[in-house]
Structures are given as C-alpha cells and as structure tokens.
Amino acid sequence: MAGNPQSPHSSSQPAASHESADVEMGQYVYDRTRVDEKKVQKDDQIISEFGSYKYGWHDSDAAGQAAKKGIDENVVRAISADKHEPKWMLDLRLKGYHAFVDKPMPRWGVDLSGFNAQDFKYYVKPVDHEAKSWSDLPPDIRRTYDRLGIPEAEKKRLVAGVAAQYESEVIYNSIRDELSKQGVIFCDTDTAVRKYPELVRKYFNTVVPYNDNKFAALNTAAWSGGSFVYVPKGVHVTIPLQAYFRINTPNMGQFERTLIIADEGSYVHYVEGCTAPIYATDSLHAAVVEIIVEKNARVRYTTVQNWSNNVYNLVTQRALVKAHGTMEWVDGNIGSKASMKYPACILAGEYAKAMTMSLSFAGKGQYQDTGAKMIHLAPHTKSTIVAKSISRGGGRSAYRGLVAIPKGAHGSQSSVVCDALLVDEFSRSDTYPHVDVREDDVTMSHEATVSKVSQDQLFYLEQRGIEEKEAMGMIVRGFVEPVARQLPMEYALELNRLVELQMEGSVG
Q: Measured between alpha carbons, how far is 21 from 108 in angstroms, rounded to an integer?
C-alpha cells in the first residue's frame, strides 16, 4: 500500500520517475482566488445543511479515555500479553515494530508531513468479551450498530455472517449454522490465532510480509481484530459475509488484520464497511488484508468505505491467486482526510484472473490517492483495472497503479481504464501509471480520461425539463454506475446515496 508501486513487495522509497511530480503534489494549494467566493460560501452552507457526514456521532468513551497515546516495544508486548498470544506472534509483532521504526515515511502520494505516530492510541478494548447476541452488547454500542443497520441486515438474512469491530476489538461475530456444518470458518483473527493456530501460522504474513512498507509494519506490530475466513474445498458461500469497522475514540488507531483463504474450487464474497465520528483531531486506519485464492477458487472483496474527513486511511491489501483462480476487488472510497490504497493481485498460476473496480470521491479538504497493482508471474494470466474518481470542492484524487509482466508470463493480458470527473474549476485529478512489461507475447492497454461537468451538459438536460440539481445527479450517477453495478443491490443503493450526499451543493 504505502509502498512503491514498482514491486509486489514494496518499500517506502519513492519511484525515481515520480518523485519530482509527487513533491509538487504535496505542495499543491487550494487557490480561492480562482473561485467565485459567493458560490463557495453558498456551497459550504448547503453542504453543512444537507450533505453532512451521516455517521459522525460518537458514543461514551470510557475505554478510549483510559488508553494512552503512543507506541513503543512495551506497548507491543502489552497488546500481545493481553491477548495471551503464542511466542511466534509476539516475535512477529516485535519484528514489525522495529521495521516500522526503521522505514522512512513515504515521500510520494498524500502529504503525511503532519503525521506523528505518537499522536494515536493503539489499543482500546471496549468490552471484556465478544457478545453472542446483539442484546449482550453495552447499550451505547448496541445503539451505534442499530443506527448503522447491521443487526437488521442479519435479521433479513442479507448476509451469511456478520462481524462487528468497535475500536480495537471484534465485539460481535456470527455465522449461519449451515455454513459452519460445511466447515466454513468466519471469526475474528484473534480467535483464529487461539482456535486455529496451525492454519493461521501457515498463511499469516505470507502475502503481506511484516516489512512490506511502513504502515504494514505498524499493523503487524499493533494489529487487533479483523476477520479470519476459511472456505473449504468446493464450498460456495453464495450470500456475502459482512464485517463492519467503527472508530469511536478520538486519536484512535485501528489496525485490523484480515486473512481470507479460499481453498480449491471454493467461492466467497466478503463485504466490509467503515465509519468514524468527526473530531477536531485525526484518527488512523492502517489495516492489512491478505487473501489466498487457491486453484480454481474465486474471491470477491467489496469495500464501501465512508470514513469521516479526519481519518488517515493507509491500508495494504493484497491477494495471491493460483492457477485458474479469480480475484475481484470492488472498492468504494468516500470520505477520509487522506487515503493511500492500492489493492494488489499476484497472479502466480497459469490462467489466473484478477479484476479491480474502484470509485474514489474527493471533496473539500480530501486527498484520495488510490489505484491497483497487478503482477503477472505466470503465463496466460489476465487482469483488468477500472478506476473512477470524482473531485469537487477543491478535493484531489489520483490514480496510482502498477502492471508488471516479467519474462516468461507469455500470453498474458492486462487492461487499465482510468476515468476522472471534475465537478468544478478548482478541484484536481492526476494519473500515475507504472507499466513494466518484459515479455513480447502479451496484450497490454491503458486508457485515461478526464472530463468536466460542463454548463452545456447541464443546459442540454434542463432543456428537456430536468431541474439543474437532478441533471447533475444524472451525470454523476451515470459515471458511478459501472462500479455500483458490481455491488449487491442494497450496497449499490448505499453507494449511490453516499455519492449524492457528497454532491449536495455542487450546483447553484
């Protein structure tokens, strides 16, 4: 993630060909002299009234207030001791901590000059034990998930299993009985370390090494919670598994660790959602996701992320795809102060396939640096990247990607399409592709477009009796539709609604 897109196991050193541009990127200043001040004021008023962040409330915070800020080796040892972990996990945590200390901050992408690792709280335990039912949760936490609609989704059987993480811990987890009987495992990663140690140790830290990049190292040191999924050979989980991650404490660092293993010929769809309250100070989300797609298996990983605009979202997500396997990332990034997120696929077996389809929305004061990585290590592999971004209100979006096809990966195919939509005159979008092809017998295409919502488009629709606000909505919904179409219906509706909230005040 927050590593150099030039290699599957990336470091935090910048790509030489990008460095000068990226330094300039970090110095970019929103120039209000180019803007109609009255229009900006009107936009801000409308946004405050109608487009406010829906999930910005916070609950009582006794556990968070008791937690101390900062990380050192003693904090790492204390986290491991509280979880009663085996020595191999403590040793791995300590390796991660020292790698975090040694690695420099990324000097490309989003501006991290104001980031200080000692400003955050690394372990907040909101409950003493995982709840067996929603009614077992403390009332304030239960009300949070009621407002988010998670219990209702489970009652309506929209999901095959639910995991809810609050601060550092998964506080609720369930899976349908029929899936358990088929051998499907869906639990929090802490529980997996205790109950399935051989399975966890076999795969943990294999797709994303502890020293992969600075923030993956930090996650390895301080990880807590996250989901563990194992799907046995030939089993198809036809209804999604859902996880929801909530930050409540100010200055909180959330470091969930998710590990998904789809054995031969299996299928699973995993969906995650994220929210946090709005505080005057920043919070940090630095997750790591490792996915193993065995021969002939298929995994779809869907994110509908809606962090508040005071969250650093710095995550590492990577899948290892074996022969004839298929990996699909569907990614909606709305919110956060700054995001660096590049889902990656290592196509390690013949005829492996991967697809990444993403949408990022950068509003006022936001910088979304997102993209994807596809590393073709075997013949006849195929990858597709579709990246869409919307920028408005002075927001900034960037596509940053890697396609690598080394010698020997003959017959491979890769297609990259980047579409950016600018809603106003003072927002910004950039594209930073990196293509490294060392084999002659391949098919490679890259296409990038930047378009602006113009007065001509709006006038054309208004002339057909459509009000300006709805006309803008139609243009944006049409732009978002290819991503929304990949989501289950209820999540597609949610994504469209979130985009519409963000677009309030963009006309007039």
A: 9
Give yes or no for a contact between 171 and 130, defined as CB atoms under 8 angstroms apart: yes
Tokens linked to 22: 């990226």
| Rounded mean pLDDT, 32-39 | 41
Q: Put residue 442 in one of left, alpha, beta given phi > 0 → left and psi -120 to 50 → alpha.
A: beta
410: number of Cβ within 10 Å: 15
What is the reported pLDDT for 225?
85
Mean pLDDT of 477-494: 67
Give every CB contact of residue 111 below 8 A, 6+ residues apart in sequence: 26, 338, 367
Question: For residue 288, what are the CA distances in angstroms to 52, 225, 257, 292, 498?
Answer: 29, 11, 5, 13, 25
Question: Does residue 195 carry a pLDDT above 90?
Answer: yes
Rounded Cα gap, residues 488 and 239, in angstroms: 10
According to DSSP, the residues that pair with 213 across neighbouring strands are: none
Residue given tokens 């487009």 in the structure block = 51
Q: How far is CA 9 from CA 3, 347, 427, 496, in A?
A: 8, 14, 33, 34
What one-character-per-residue DSSP string does 118-184 give? GGSB------SS-BSSGGGS-HHHHHHHHHHTHHHHHHTT--SEEEEEETTEEEEEEE-HHHHHTT-
Torsion of CA 12, 13, 17, 21, to 10 degrees: 70
**pLDDT tens digit sequence for 308-343:** 778 899 999 999 999 999 999 998 887 788 899 999
Phi/psi-derived region of residue 455, left when phi > 0, alpha when psi is between -120 and 50, beta in every other case: alpha
Spell out a b/e string for 252-271, using b for 16 or more CB atoms within 10 Å of the CB, else e: bbbbbbbbbbbbbbbbbbbb
Tokens standing for residue 480: 């978002």
Residues 302, 272 contacting (CB under 8 angstroms): yes
- Burial status of residue 118 (CB atoms within 10 A of its CB: 0-12, 13-18, 19 or more): exposed
- Please report which helix (H) or strand (E) contains residue 477, including its range: helix 468-484
